[in-house]
Amino acid sequence: MLTEELERYSSQYLMQTYARVPISIVRGQGCKVYDAEGREYLDCVAGVAVNALGHGHPDLVMAIEQQARHLIHASNLYYSEPQVQLAQQLVKLSFGQKVFFCNSGAEANEAAIKLARKYASENIAPERCDIITMHNSFHGRTLATLTATGQSKVQQGFAPLPTGFSYATMNDIESVKSQITDRTAAVMIEPVQGEGGVVAADQSFMKELRALCTERRILLIFDEVQTGIGRTGTMFAYEQYEIEPDIMTLAKGLGGGLPIGACIATDTIAQAFGPGSHGSTFGGNPLACAASLAMLRVIQDSRLLEKVQATGAYLKKGLQELQRRIPLIKEIRGMGLLQGVELSIDGKSVVKDCLARRVLINCTMERVLRFIPPLIITQKDIDHLLNVLSDVLNKRLKNP
Q1: With the CA atoms of 358, 360, 363 and 364 taken in that order, what torsion angle do they form, in degrees rounded to the nearest 10?
Q2: Counting C-beta atoms within 10 Å of the first and last residue's C-beta, which end of the chain has fewer, N or C?
Q3: Structural domain boundaries of the chain?
Q4: Which residues contact 274 (CB under 8 A, 6 or more apart)?
């Protein structure tokens, strides 16, 4: 179907929960995608940080094809070799010793919330159940995770919301301290707030937060749904802060395009989950785990993390050069290939203008352009992105 037909049928048959960009993507290869009319676009959204290896990566495609021929799903009533192998790899790469698999970032965060509450109430004090999160955070769309999300706009219309959540200010340790009570079980934080405007946690704040949580016997949860699996230049963003959380959540890039999420914890904390305490019908199915294993192999075998560090720095430098020339740019911030550009004008119109030039970018918090391309993006592609962005912003400067 052409885009115009899909738009009409979408309006007729689908719940209107998305403000869709008016193109229909039908094919992808590397960092390029193609619409129903055959037009080519540079993809700097990557399925919202999901398509870490771009589109059609041969190793990922082969792993999915081979696993699909053997077994797609059997449920968690039985053992699964790909699931155990993936858990083993994630444990080897991270601080944790145990993994729970699910299907999305929201579900991974739900698991983390449940695990933290259960562990704290059983091992610290029965009343320990409250979770502190950050203003402008984003943790998901389920009732618990949208309550954990520190943005009132996503919570409107869904009352009554679950109790037990409060909000502190990112990079303000005194704000966190002010929210701690005898009922506090955990602090949940994104190392970089993606949906919250690409705001990274300060090094000193993270170290103070780790020390505070340790002192007060409060669990520290890192939501690495967007930052995990190489996005910031290390396998996990926490590595760059030289601290370790007690629980970490992953999704997005973990499956390279297939739905999979994970909640990772230390062995001591993970013991709070026994048979029947949590579960997921599709979580950790063989197909998604095979894809994830292929993802991790490619990242390690191709030294992709080093490339992300180089291309991330190249992108940031290019954006900073634009900032010096274009007064519409207020601030550049982010880590690795998760970069944000805060503008003094509406960002959605800039996204639309870039779309017309066949470059896909994203906007959060109304005025922050977010760049989350595939981790395989080249400097040539980044140059093209920067040239288009420069042209678009300069035209906006001349014709506000």
Answers
A1: 170
A2: C
A3: 3-56+303-398, 59-301
A4: none
Task: Tell me the mean pLDDT in the region 56-77.
Answer: 97
* Residue pLDDT, tens place only, 211-258: 999 999 999 999 999 999 999 999 999 999 999 999 999 999 999 999
CATH domain 59-301 topology: Aspartate Aminotransferase; domain 2 (3.40.640)
For residue 2, what pLDDT is reported? Answer: 78
% of the chain surpassing 90 pLDDT: 96
How far does CA 235 lie from the centroid of its chain? 13
CATH class entry, domain 3-56+303-398: alpha beta
pTM higher than 0.85:
yes
- Average confidence score pLDDT of the chain: 97
